[in-house]
Write a structure and sequence with these properties.
Layout: E1 7-13, E2 27-29, E3 36-41, E4 56-59, E5 62-65, H1 79-96, H2 100-112, E6 118-119, E7 123-125, E8 128-134, E9 142-147, E10 156-161, E11 172-173, E12 190-191
Antiparallel strand pairs: 1-2, 1-3, 4-5, 6-8, 7-8, 8-9, 9-10, 11-12
Length: 192
């Protein structure tokens, strides 16, 4: 339901196993008899307003006005842009702070349904088995291999552990790792 300037939205939290959708979608508009959370978006919280600076781009002979071109900061060093983004983040946090308990509950449910210590089914190549594993408390998976021997005493070799990178605000990912020949290890990764 929406009311005047103060938008009042009631969410009903369903049990995730009763829905055919991801747990994030368990907050839905009123329609059940479950406990609900009322969220009032106060009109006293005002979003930061970005200034408009006329800038024209010409593409294919057409002239286009882009009043927010000044936001373009690929090096992330423009103090004015960074200050505006911080103000937007502060506004967002203040506006959604009443929903923090619901956010925490959904997060705990998602984590509760995940196997934090797990590994993929191994693939075999060149006398080794290759797999990746997730470790509780670590953000990224670890790529590993073991030599195929008659017993299970083979030592695990870590090919790539993205959790070891110490750079701040690093966004890492892997598309694939080519299986190396015999004893050569050439893992590949990219940084964004």
């Amino acid at each position: 339901m929406l009311q005047g300037q103060n938008h009042t939205v009631r969410y009903c939290v369903e049990d995730a196993h009763n829905l055919f959708c991801p747990p994030v979608a368990i907050a839905r508009f009123v329609g059940c008899n479950r406990p609900s959370l009322t969220y009032n978006a106060s009109s006293t919280i005002q979003p930061p307003i970005a200034k408009k600076v006329p800038h024209f781009n010409i593409y294919h002979g057409q002239k286009y006005l882009d009043e927010y071109h000044w936001f373009r900061d690929n090096k992330r060093k423009n103090k004015e842009v960074l200050d505006h983004l911080k103000a937007e983040n502060k506004y967002f946090a203040a506006l959604l702070s009443p929903l923090k308990p619901l956010e925490d509950e959904i997060y705990r449910e998602i984590i509760g349904r995940m196997a934090e210590d797990d590994s993929t089914y191994p693939t075999t190549k060149g006398g080794y088995i290759y797999y990746k594993k997730t470790v509780k408390g670590l953000q990224y998976s670890v790529r590993c291999r073991k030599r195929i021997v008659g017993d299970s005493s083979a030592k695990e070799e870590v090919l790539l552990d993205l959790n070891k990178f110490k750079e701040k605000h690093l966004n890492l990912g892997i598309r694939s790792i080519a299986k190396p020949k015999a004893s050569r290890i050439y893992p590949g990764y990219y940084r964004q």
